[in-house]
Amino acid sequence: MAEQSGTSRRSVLAVAAAATTAGAVGLQAGPAAARDGDGRSRTAQEPSRELRALLREIDHRRIEATVRRLAAFGTRHTLSAQDDPERGIGAARDWILAEMRRHAGAAGGRMRVELQSYVQEPGPRIPEPTRITNVVATLRGSASPDRLYVVSGHYDSRASDVMDFTSDAPGADDDASGVAVVMELARVMARRRLGATVVFAAVAGEEQGLFGAAHMAEQYKLRKADVQGMFTNDIVGSPTADDGTRDPRTIRLFAEGVPSSETPEEAAVRRSVGGENDSPSRQLARFVRDVADNDATGMKVRVVHRRDRYLRGGDHIPFLERAYPAARFTEPAEDYAHQHQDVRVEDGKQYGDLPEFCDFPYIARVARVNAAALWSLAQAPGTPRGAKILTAALTNDTELVWERGPEKDLAGYEVVWRETTASDWTHVIDVGDATRHTVDLSKDNVFFGVRAVGRSGLRSPVAFPSPER
User: Fold this and answer.
1) Can you tell me whether residue 126 is helix, strand or coil?
2) 25-34, 104-113, 401-410: which has the minimum mean pLDDT?
3) Which whole-number Å values give the CA distances from 397 to 52, 71, 127, 465, in the listed order?
4) What is the radius of gyration, based on Cα positions, of the chain?
């Protein structure tokens, strides 16, 4: 087992003082240097030629066709018809299944598409036992098939009355846009060989209570699946706010701080070390910004330090509740006239979630952000496990340990750190193929993390270490 000798405080500061802004990995002089002059994070990863080629294949015309087809089913309410071939959630389900199977044809047997169904018992928004069905396409990884990343959108829709399952509810933005992102990702990624497994899911029952996503997350939990990241795309169809202002180059990414699954014991540790801004989901969000906030996607990823929008929720929450890192993509500002509204005209104003209010090139850029994140996650090593800060001795340096990952293309590790007041990692130390490293800086003054490096140069999300005596 390789070990790396400690880094002295003097050498750290000397390298920091000498560092320049060239390169994504390097030691910088302080928290103000967390991002370069162009706004790039110091841990940012430059898109490779292969990734850029993948992103160019994402087609806004195909996304538009998907949104319009889903809207044409009239309503996709969870309680609507499941056996009508033209209208209702059953018709939408069958069409999504057929399209996903068509995309799987390019995967050479590596993509499995299936219906994941169960019967939801009656509850506040489910008046009678109702079958909930997710359409799930699993693209098996070639190097680390047991490591999973999930991306979803919900294909059910609603009108003004959440129990109205007969009126038109086209649901173009909420959430045909998210489903279109997922289906376009499945199409372009099925043609490529990925290291880890990526799951593309169109889930149902979101508007009635996140039922489809909860069932999916629970199935993974029962299997003890290694889900290292989950993204839901929900309301990603338009950059136009209700006052007409536009922000066409921004996507919000909601990421919780205090984990939804936290136990009382874990809460006590978090309070003692100050880890409120370092949950697995926050590390996942930092990773997304590092790999997808660039010229290849044409987008700015605005990370919001909340689990979801104010007092609201989405399909990532059941994954968070089961201790899986998860986050939500949502357009920069919602227009509520075109969300959860009956289709109608009042005082000359059109209401309803119609395709004409979607911006399809914008949705394509959102899909590129997702693709950059998923491809980079799948091709990089997994997030390090067992990251600890040793605390048995009272010292003014910091000794970190972690477990070596199983990946055959693992090249080594990096230790990252930042001031406690900084949001982004400001310093990166290459420690080689090691499982232990000592930094001559006090653990009391800064935050530390560890990330894995693959031979291709791709880095994993950061693991935030916990204390160990």
Assistant:
1) strand
2) 25-34
3) 41, 59, 60, 15
4) 23
